[in-house]
Amino acid sequence: MSYAIELRGITKRFPLVLANDNISMRVKWGSVHALVGENGAGKSTLMKIIYGMQPATSGEIWVDGKHVQMHDPRDAIRLGIGMVHQHFMLVEPLTVTENVILGAEPTLGTSINYATARKRVAELIKQFNFDLDPDDKIEDLPVGLQQKVEILKTLYRGARILILDEPTAVLTPGETKELFDFLKNNYAKSGNSVIFISHKLHEVLEISDEISVIRDGKMIGSIPTQGATPETIARMMVGRDVVLRVDKAPPRPGEVALEVRGVTVVGENKKNLVHNVSFNVRSGEIVGIAGVEGNGQSQLVEAITGLLRPTSGEIRYLGKALSRPDAAKVTAAGVSHIPEDRNERGLVLEMSTQENLILGEQRSKDFCGPLGLLKLDVIERNAHELAQKYDVRPRSASLPAGRYSGGNAQKLIVAREMRKNPKILVASQPTRGVDIGAIEFIHKQIVDARDQGLAVLLVSADLGEVMNLSDRILVMFEGEVVGEVSAAEATEERLGLMMAGVRPEAKTA
Ligand SMILES: Nc1ncnc2c1ncn2[C@@H]1O[C@H](COP(=O)(O)OP(=O)(O)O)[C@@H](O)[C@H]1O
Ligand SMILES: [Mg+2]
Known about the structure:
It is a peripheral membrane protein. Residues 5-241, 258-503 form the ABC transporter domain. The protein is an alpha/beta fold. The chain has 2 domains: 5-238, Rossmann fold, CATH 3.40.50; 256-350 and 389-508, Rossmann fold (3-Layer(aba) Sandwich). It is built from 18 helices and 20 strands. It has helices at residues 43-50, 73-78, 96-101, 114-127, 143-156, 173-188, 201-207, 230-238, 297-304, 327-332, 342-346, 353-356, 376-389, 406-419, 436-451, 463-469, 492-499, 504-508; strands spanning 5-13, 18-27, 32-36, 58-63, 66-68, 81-84, 161-165, 193-198, 210-215, 218-224, 256-266, 272-282, 286-290, 312-317, 320-321, 335-338, 424-428, 455-459, 472-477, 480-486. Helix 14 packs parallel to helix 15. Bound molecules: adenosine-5'-diphosphate and magnesium ion.
């Protein structure tokens, strides 16, 4: 029997890293084969080799039983391989048809037979049941449909093997469901093959027939999805047992640490972004805010952390209100902030690890001498200590922050914010885009700090994370808190209804 793809001992050596180390893998026809591994494991590199975007240092690629040579993507396309990248390569002002035929125009004759192409595109749309029109403009389409256009491009070129590199990172749950339906029940079912890259375990379990795991550039193994569990895959990915559920003792809430009273934030077009929100967070408890992104959570966090002034309402930190609050005053009041966008607010990517680890504290007496001179030796030692304690890899005081993987970059922020010994922690999307080993670590840091008496406000669009970590959960919808439940009462259904704006009273009435 021939395989759609067979890799034999693929090795890819970059100047500084061995990105793929003797990887062998077989992808069956008519199946969805998931490739998983933590950030930096070597997944994208391997796929670029299969797609002819970069040469392997050594090893063989076999496609449908034949040993092949890839020089560029045209070779791959000729062999029936298509790839959808994480960042789309579409031309926004052009139509679906124009994008699909771009680069695949008939080479014989002088003019492109647009009508024929359009007809073919329409047929494919019908065959694969995409919610697209050949004449739609790309710029008018939501992300999920733009991705379908990328897929359509490969289908138009006759792809029988489709590679998707982290395709769901940009999709809503509904769009993901549609994509999965196409891949599994339509594309693979009719005999084609899919290589699906992800590090979201529940997705991998849902979509795939077989799972291959790579870690540090090495193939750890391939297993059938049937019978696999999140734990087994996580263990293969990380190389040890991973606690996917957060283990925590019951909370011992103390004094009110953070008090939010009637906070309203009015936006540019007079719309209330946050409307009359009130709640407390006590020391020693984690209060989670759940909600679909864009329902005022970001503005609420900005108000609490001093990044924006609420239009009305009051915020008290350890019992004190601040006059003319700003980020520095809020920090001085004992608040640490893990911002939702680590690349914009959390880190200065060009700056070194040690500089990033004292951001906001350059003038504190820990790091700055009486004459305003930075204590460089202390700053460097601080970096080494924190990198060790928070398991930041690689361990380096001088590496620019932009060179870390997502998980390690996030650990840097957590390390810096926890070092301040805060009384209140505002954690926004603390593990977004972070690999599971680092998620486990960050969750444990937050729970440990809560057990030491920290008041934690957790804001996350990841419902699983909110349910796992929080002692109490508030749900935001269109700027308001529509309900509160204890961790014990929280179910996905209950929170899901509130996230859609259904108030708990309305449900029971
Ligand atoms: N063009 C390149 N030059 C040097 N190193 C690279 C290049 N591309 C990837 N790497 C390195 O190879 C390793 C694997 O990267 P990648 O294949 O992107 O991982 P993944 O997709 O699993 O997150 C990483 O250490 C990455 O920094
Ligand atoms: Mg990748």
